[in-house]
């Protein structure tokens, strides 16, 4: 293969060798992924129509809509339903090899870059486990290869790309242009071949378009994911300001004067043709420079990095669970504090009695009354306020946290202070017994 042929045409072995370059790339999801999902790719089916697989514990990042509330209520832990997602999707490559792509002002011809991009996307789709098919067309032939998940399908597509490229010695078609442009014919065929949810790549220079092209693209994108890759030559983007240049044509070189105003107006007028919808589609297409399309394809097909905001549904669920846990903890603390309000009040009264401690039986009677009020709040079902004599002593000893034998004389002294003129216990012993008894009454 000579040097000139290497620039204008790419052979089947060269297209096969592109799988080595495609290993550094990754075929993206139909839409940018902002959160971690189960599976390698999003399901091609619109909506949530997936087959149920199993139920497992909730994990951060799971969709909150998939929570199984019955299992969650039964096991008191959040559980998520798992579904069997679609693991393969049809990928359809529309590759334009028409006469307008047999051109380049520098580097390889546009048809070479078009074939290279289609080959790389085909290898990426095959390694992702997807079905690969294509529609390859030029001014004479339109070849349809239905999607299939086999390496043989990719090789057949690459062979078609090799065959339908124009050669240097190939004469252009002399037939009149059909009523429908070649891109419209390919898009119409794609609507017939593509299944709902397919991933479709349209690779062309979008120079051969009509008023119907935008409508056909919109109809195709209504039920599929459509990506347009536009092959643009530097000379098509901007002409030289001045000078005479030659362009090779079927009848020999054609000379033009870049500084001629009429020539400039004619070129710009030709670019502005087409209806607004088609022009908008062509404007949104990814522009591929023929000099180095692989690096540009890398930029397009690496998935977008998810930002911090908005958080994934799993993080919202985790935040709700944390807030609920904090609210429950605060509620328990307040409930316990309210339940022990009587204990704080009893300790405050005990502190006041400690300041006026004496051997007077009236003081011991006040301390005994304080213990009865505390016992009534702590044990309302046992009615300790009605106990007297040995029954009250035994109750104090049974609910005290420490040695009953050492505390019995003090407890008896508290009971007998109501009718005896003298008390056999010291105030310090009575205060120590009261503190000890109250210390073991926390709820």
Describe this entry's structure for a reader.
The chain is an alpha/beta fold and 443 residues long. It is 47% helix and 14% strand. It contains 17 helices and ten strands. The protein has helices at residues 3-8, 12-22, 69-75, 110-127, 151-164, 182-193, 213-221, 234-237, 261-271, 276-284, 293-301, 313-339, 341-355, 361-378, 389-399, 404-416, 427-439, and strands spanning 51-57, 79-84, 90-96, 131-137, 142-148, 199-204, 225-231, 244-249, 252-257, 286-288. The strands form three sheets. A six-stranded mixed β-sheet has the order 5-4-3-6-7-10, sandwiched between helices. Strand 4 and strand 5 (142-148) form a beta hairpin. Helix 13 runs antiparallel to helix 17 and helix 14 runs parallel beside helix 17. It is rod-shaped and about 140 Å long. The chain starts with a helix and ends with a helix. Residues 1-6, 29-49 and 297-306 have low confidence and may be disordered.
């Amino acid at each position: 293969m000579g040097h000139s042929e290497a620039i204008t045409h790419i052979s089947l072995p060269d297209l096969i060798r592109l799988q080595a370059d495609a290993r550094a790339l990754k075929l993206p999801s139909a839409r940018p992924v902002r959160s971690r999902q189960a599976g390698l790719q999003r399901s091609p089916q619109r909506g949530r129509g997936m087959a149920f697989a199993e139920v497992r514990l909730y994990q951060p990042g799971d969709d909150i809509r998939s929570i199984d509330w019955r299992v969650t209520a039964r096991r008191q832990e959040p559980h998520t339903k798992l579904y069997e997602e679609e693991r393969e999707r049809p990928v359809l490559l529309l590759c334009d090899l028409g006469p307008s792509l047999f051109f380049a002002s520098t580097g390889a011809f546009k048809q070479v870059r078009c074939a290279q991009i289609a080959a790389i996307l085909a290898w990426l789709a095959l390694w992702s486990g997807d079905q690969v098919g294509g529609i390859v067309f030029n001014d004479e032939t339109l070849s349809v290869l239905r999607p299939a998940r086999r390496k043989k399908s990719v090789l057949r597509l690459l062979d078609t790309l090799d065959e339908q490229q124009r050669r240097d010695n190939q004469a252009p078609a002399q037939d009149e242009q059909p009523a429908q442009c070649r891109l419209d014919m390919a898009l119409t065929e794609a609507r017939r071949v593509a299944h709902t949810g397919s991933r479709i790549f349209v690779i062309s220079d979008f120079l051969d378009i009509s008023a119907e092209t935008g409508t056909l693209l919109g109809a195709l994108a209504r039920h599929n994911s459509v990506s347009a890759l536009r092959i643009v030559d530097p000379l098509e983007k901007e002409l030289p300001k001045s000078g005479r240049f030659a362009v090779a044509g079927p009848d020999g070189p054609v000379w033009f004067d870049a500084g001629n105003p009429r020539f400039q107006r004619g070129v710009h007028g030709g670019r502005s043709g087409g209806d607004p919808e088609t022009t908008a589609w062509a404007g949104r297409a990814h522009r591929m420079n023929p000099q180095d399309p692989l690096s540009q394809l890398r930029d397009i097909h690496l998935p977008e990095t998810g930002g911090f905001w908005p958080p994934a549904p799993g993080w919202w669920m985790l935040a709700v669970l944390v807030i609920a846990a904090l609210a429950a903890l605060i509620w328990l603390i307040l409930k316990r504090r309210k339940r022990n309000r009587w204990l704080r009040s009893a300790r405050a009264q005990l502190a006041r009695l400690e300041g006026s401690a004496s051997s007077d039986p009236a003081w011991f009677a006040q301390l005994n009354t304080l213990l009865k009020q505390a016992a009534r709040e702590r044990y309302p079902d046992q009615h300790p306020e009605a106990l007297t004599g040995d029954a009250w002593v035994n109750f104090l000893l049974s609910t005290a946290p420490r040695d009953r034998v050492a505390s019995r004389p003090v407890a008896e002294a508290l009971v007998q202070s109501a009718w005896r003129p003298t008390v056999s216990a010291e105030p310090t012993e009575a205060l120590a017994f009261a503190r000890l008894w109250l210390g073991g009454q926390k709820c």
